[in-house]
Amino acid sequence: HAAASSNFLRQIIERDLAAGRHQGRPWGGSPGDADHHARGLPDPARIRTRFPPEPNGYPHIGHAKSIWINFSLAQEYGGVCHMRFDDTNPEKEEQEYVEAILDAVRWLGWSWHAHGTEHLYYASDYFDTMARAARYLIETGHAYVDEQTPEQLRATRGTLTEPGTESPWRHRPVEESLRRWEEMLAGRHPDGAMVVRARIDMASPNLNLRDPAIYRIKHAAHHNTGTRWCVYPMYTFAHPIEDALENITHSICTLEFEDQRPFYDWLLARLVPLLRAPQFARARTRIEGLRAQGVEAAKEFALRCHNAAARVGANTEAERSMAALFARWEHDRDAVLRDLDAFFELLLAELHQFTPLLAEALTAYEPEPFDLPHQYEFARLNLTYVVTSKRKLKALVDEGVVAGWDDPRLPTLAGLRRRGYTPSAIRLFCERTGVSKANGWIDYGTLEVALRDDLEEQAPRAMAVLDPLELRLTNWAEVFGDERHREPCRAPVHPHHPGWGERAFHLGPRVWIERDDFMEQPPKGYHRLYPGNRVRLKYGYVVECTGCEKDADGRVTAVLARLVPDTKSGTPGADAVKVKGVITWVGADEAVAAEIRLYDRLFTDPQPDAGGKDFKALLNPDSLRVVRGWVEPGLGDAAPEQRFQFERHGYFVADRLDHQPGRPVFNRIATLKDGWGG
Ligand code: ATP
Ligand code: MG
Ligand code: MG
User: Fold this and answer.
1) Pairwise CA distance, residues 596 & 244, whole Å
2) How many CB atoms within 10 Å of residue 89?
3) Of 38, 119, 132, 454, which one has the fewest beta carbons inside 10 Å?
4) How far apart are CA 511 and CA 584, in angstroms?
5) Centre of ligand 3 from the C-alpha of residue 390, in Å
6) pLDDT along the chain (678 residues), means of 10
7) Which residues contact 551 (CB under 8 A, 6 or more apart)?
8) Can you tell me the distance from the alpha carbon of 559 to that of 510, in angstroms, rounded to the nearest whole number?
9) Strand ranges across the sheet with 461-462
């Protein structure tokens, strides 16, 4: 039922598909679909999404959300999700992180292969196109090279209430900007000497539209392109271009980017002639056709341009002159009609200047004249008791607070995997927490509930003693005639799946029980072992406690009890003796010693990095407790990553790296009940 639940992204995609958008669009493939892309064949995918991490750290549970959203939407609607590395920032990116991200996506069960193609892309593979795009914007008057210092750039940006100040370089001749751009490319200037800026509007209420930088100088080697470049695109410039080149239909990101959407659209509209050359050529043919059809068709098209101009706004000189032409429409219609020819001349001569207007006006004739990707935003996942920022996670790793990126206390996917989380539990968690437009916090317990719901039906059961205390059955020889006798016991592998068979183990005169299953002086309501009380050893016999042994410090070293004959579980009359307590145990001479790692939350604060808090001062000193325990004999040869429910204790996994035959190591994934309430 959960998988069918709707969210606003599904609604958007369904709306788009119902309107016939995206389907079979020509030139719709991706660089990977070599034939489709180059020959203008229809897109084999109905929609395209992408997961675009920056390889600057290990992916975490927040990324799992983004992975789930993008891959599951593509899968549900017959589309493809591209795996794309947004590697535009040379200094922080490493191959190790690339591998970790690919591993995590595969582990979660997703694939970026479709229609015979591997859709694995690197933003850095598009650096040539991006540099051409910057040049194109300069040539068309939409960008300039600014030689202000970084301090001046910051100081002239303005504030939310004050407009920015125009740079003295803003109106320099195109040729001069182009010359500087060439020099930047040739490495003739140091870092920070100048930047390429989009020319938009220094008075825009949206700070992201106040002539944002699109290219900067950075003399740094890149993990993919080496030292080929000494200029690198800004993320906000690179990302829309990546999306457009790959023919992404729905570009889904987190809410912080909502204010970037106007720039995303502004940029792609300006780059249409470059990035959508075939469609653009078609548009030109269409316009010429309309003109040739006579004055009525031309008039109607001019009217559509008029409406588009009102909606889109006019930013360049060319657009402004067009807008001025349209402004006369209302009061001097005839004059405009007389000017229709002039209108078409202007339009066709400087077509590339009018793409936003054209896109709007042409939709009446072609559903998607330039089929540009659209950005949609959702609220990022915030999970209590963890930090999900690669930078902060890296600090914990680098400073040795945790054992590595895959430390089971970290919310990295490598950490969650090592902790024992299943891919299906994580997917279930993503589905249940849904997609929202409003930021909020998800309780860590929600992740554990998903884990329990996933493992409850799947995990074989076993008994383990984590804090061992010896229990001696003092009448053993009396009952069975021989101290060396061992009584075979059986238990279901899983109580709901009889077909899975039974576990076999033995009861003997010495068993390990949990230390807190005995109390010399029990409080009221305590039903386990205390002198004079009877309990059942699960799957075994009822025993009656007779006392205990202690060391010189008064610490209990063994519990003494007598076995009650004829009470063996599963035999007739076993229930004749009534008990209120059932305890778990393992036979002392066949149990396997195990290292058991008991993990708890890493931070003591539910929002360790919110509101400028110092998360490193909020560490839980008891986030890891390693104990030596005893497990059922069958667990000695568990496979790494095999998961169990230890009865009464919770879910455990054989550690994927340290667990070895004869040297078992188990990690506690989660207790049986929620312990995170605080
Ligand atoms: P971090 O702050 O941890 O470095 P990021 O957003 O910079 O995260 P990217 O590598 O750029 O990390 O992220 C790849 C994708 O994952 C982006 O689309 C981003 O929006 C998404 N993403 C990252 N963190 C979360 C989160 N907590 N919830 C949902 N999506 C996320
Ligand atoms: Mg990022
Ligand atoms: Mg980041």
Assistant:
1) 51
2) 19
3) 38
4) 10
5) 6
6) 68 92 77 75 90 96 98 96 95 88 98 92 97 97 96 96 97 98 98 97 96 98 93 98 96 97 96 92 92 87 83 72 72 73 83 86 87 95 95 96 97 98 98 92 96 97 98 98 97 97 97 98 96 97 98 97 96 90 97 97 95 93 97 94 97 97 95 66
7) 557
8) 10
9) 461-462, 643-646, 650-654, 665-670, 592-599, 624-631, 464-465
Around ligand 1, the residues with Cβ closer than 6 Å are: 52-54, 62-63, 65-66, 253-254, 380-381, 388-390
* Residues 93, 218 contacting (CB under 8 angstroms): no
Q: Which residue has the tokens 């990690």?
A: 667
d(CA 542, CA 293): 98
595 Cβ contact list (under 8 Å, min separation 6): 626, 627, 628, 658, 663, 664, 665, 666
Catalytic residue among 54, 166, 350, 590: 54
- Please give the CATH superfamily to which domain 464-584 belongs: Ribosomal Protein L25; Chain P (2.40.240.10)
Ligand closest to CA 394: 1
Question: What's the complex ipTM?
Answer: 0.96
With the most atoms of ligand 1 within 8 angstroms of its CB, the residue from 51, 58, 63 to mutate is 63
Output the CA 640–ligand 3 centroid distance in Å: 32
Active site residue 390: yes
Residue 109, pLDDT score: 98
CA dist., res. 62 & res. 79, Å (int): 23
Q: What share of the chain is helix, strand, coil (3-state, %, to 5)?
A: 40, 20, 40
Sequence letter at residue 414: A
User: Could you confirm whether 632 is annotated as catalytic?
Assistant: no
pLDDT of residue 676: 45
Amino acid identity of 361?
A
- The predicted pLDDT at position 675 comes to 57
Of 50, 199, 291, 390, catalytic: 390
The pairing of beta strand 502-507 with beta strand 586-587: unpaired
CATH number of 2-276: 3.40.50.620
Atom of ligand 1 nearest to the CA of 70: 18
Token digits for 542?
């009822």
Under DSSP, the state recorded for 539 is: T
Atom 15, ligand 1: which residue's CA is nearest?
A: 53
CA dihedral 11, 13, 16, 19 (to 10 degrees): -70
Which residue blocks in 28-126 are alpha helix, DSSP H? 34-39, 61-76, 95-107
Instruction: Determine whether 54 is an active site residue.
Output: yes
Among 419, 566, 527, 412, smallest CA distance to 64 is for 412
* CA 252 to each of CA 102, 370, 592: distance values in angstroms, whole numbers, following the listed order: 19, 19, 50
Rounding to the nearest 10 degrees, give the CA dihedral for residues 455, 456, 460, 464. Answer: 100
At 582, phi and psi to the nearest 5? -125, 130
DSSP class of residue 210 equals: S
Q: Are 635 and 464 in contact (CB under 8 A)?
A: yes
Q: Looking at residue 325, what is its pLDDT?
A: 73
Q: Cβ atoms within 10 A of the Cβ of 97, count?
A: 23
CATH 2.40.240.10 segments of the chain: 385-434+443-459+591-678, 464-584
Name the 3-class secondary structure at 249: coil
What's the full length of the chain, in residues? 678
CA 632 to chain centre: 38
Q: Per CATH, is 385-434+443-459+591-678 categorized as 3.40.50.10680?
A: no
